[in-house]
Amino acid sequence: xxxxxxxxxxxxxxxxxxxxxxxxxxxxxxxxxxxxxxxxxxxxxxxxxxxxxxxxxxxxxxxxxxxxxxxxxxxxxxxxxxxxxxxxxxxxxxxxxxxxxxxxxxxxxxxxxxxxxxxxxxxxxxxxxxxxxxxxxxxxxxxxxxxxxxxxxxxxxxxxxxxxxxxxxxxxxxxxxxxxxx
Length: 182
Known about the structure:
Structural class: mainly alpha
Distance between the termini: 43 Å
Mean pLDDT: 90
């Protein structure tokens, strides 16, 4: 039995055990996310998105019952946005929801918020992409001393957005800021 088959077997078993509970059990939700990751690694993008979409629905139910699950929901939404973006699905909705959840979670999740905003910017174009990337940079700059590589990535992406908008001088300054971080 390979990794995908093992995850599929776990999903079947936990689906049977969930007895129709809305959102399924936490274990079912977890194994759906695992199945999505394993299918993604195998190159089965469509099936991975299906499994992760079901997992996100379960995490939404669990987070409504237990706010401690909100970080897991936001993380799963970020994964879903990435998979949808990479497999030509509508990623913006999942990315926007991840941003909303991380913003509500507050200070301990500032880095995750910045990265989710970066992801949302990648799902956007033009002025919307630039505005979102500026917001990501504003969130990540105070975190740069503790997270220089992530801050540099967000700033590099801002420089790209600025160049696409024809704002070369600001792009050069932001690029220099990113290079200074490493």
